[in-house]
TrEMBL record:
Its EC number is 3.2.1.183. GO terms for molecular function: hydrolase activity, acting on glycosyl bonds. It comes from Campylobacter majalis. Keywords: Glycosidase, Hydrolase. The keyword Hydrolase applies. It comes from the Bacteria. This is UDP-N-acetylglucosamine 2-epimerase. Residues 28-359 form the UDP-N-acetylglucosamine 2-epimerase domain. PANTHER family: UDP-N-ACETYLGLUCOSAMINE 2-EPIMERASE. The gene is siaA. CDD domains: GTB_UDP-GlcNAc_2-Epimerase. Transmembrane segments: none annotated. It is an enzyme of class 3 (hydrolase).
Amino acid sequence: MSFKKKLLFITGTRADFGKLKPLLSYVENSDKFELFVIVTGMHMLSLYGSTYREVIKQNYKNIYLVNNQFENEPMGSILGNTINILTRFFKEIEPDMVFVHGDRVEALAGALAACFERKLVCHIEGGELSGTIDDSIRHAISKFAHIHLVANDEAKNRLIKMGEDKNNIFIIGSPDIDVMNSDTLPSLKDAKEYYDINFSDYAISLFHPVTTEFEHMQEYASEYFKALKDSGKNFIMIYPNNDLGSKFILAQLQTLQGYKNIKIFPSIRFEYFLTLLKNAEFIVGNSSAGVREAPFYGINAINVGTRQNNRSSSKFVYNCCYDSNEILKAILNLKLNSMLEKEINFGSGDSLDKFIDFINNNKIWQTNLQKVFVE
C-alpha cells in the first residue's frame, strides 16, 4: 500500500499566499501528495483585513489557522511564539517536507522548527538581496533549508557562495509570474468595481517600515506622504506590513482618510492587485512589487529609501531618498510610458511546470538531513 507524501506550506501574508497558489493547487489535486497549509501571521490580524478568509475559500482539505501574535507584538516575541506553535503542528502532521517562502518571520520560524524536528525544509525564493533585516532573515532561512527553489541564476550563485550544495538548488523562477502571466486575472473594470475605485488614472502606493531605521520612521513616513499628497495625483494606498515602525505609517494614512483622490485599503487580493498594478501609471514606495512585479508589466516604479537597496537594478525603477521634495520631483518628472518593453528577471511564467518536475523527482526525497558547508 502506497501513502501520499505530506507537503506542508506556511503562509503568513496575502502576498506570499498569492504567489504560492499555483503550487498549492497542484499539490492539493495530486494523487501522489497531500497538501497541508498553515495560515498565520498577518493573515490572522483584523487590522490587515483578516485575509485568512481567502485561503479558506480555496477549500483545501487540510487548513490550519494559527494566531501567532497580538497587534504590535515585538518581532522577537512573534518568532518565539511561532516556533513553539509550529513545532506542535509538525509533531501532529509529520510532514515529509516543509515549504517556506521569502523573508518573513513566520518562514524563519518554520525553517527553525522543522530542522529541529528533522523535517526536510524547502525554501522558495532564497538567495536574493533586498535590504534591512529582511536580508538577514532570508539568508538565515537559506542556511537552515535543505533544498532551494530560486528565481534565477543570480540567486543560485549567491547560495553557492553561502556554502549551499548546488545539487540542492533548483531554478524555477518566481511563482507569482505564473499568476501575472495568466489570462484568468480579473478585468480592470471588475477590479475597480470590487474595490469601489472610480479613478480613470491612478498610481499605487506601498510603503513599509524599515526596522533598522525605526528611530526615523515617523519622520520618513511624514515626508513620504506629504510628497504624495502634494502631487495631487490619484492614489490607491495599501497598508504597510506589520514590522516594527508600522504604527507611524498607519498614523499618516489615517490623516489622508476622506481625500477624494486617495483610496486606502488594509489589503488587496493578490490577483486584483496585479490587475491594478498592470494598469497603473506607476507604483511608488518601497515594496518589492516595485522592483519585481512592476518591471515585468513594464510599469515604472519610484523606489523610496533603503528597503530595496540591494535589489537588482532596472530601467523601470527610479531610486530616491526620503526627502519629500525629492519624492515629489520624481513623481512629477516621471515619464509615463505605455509601450515599454517588459523585463523578465524572475522567470517567464513556467514555475509550476518546473515545480512539478522538481517535486516528482525521486532524488530530492533522498536529500540528507545533515547539512554540510560546501567549500
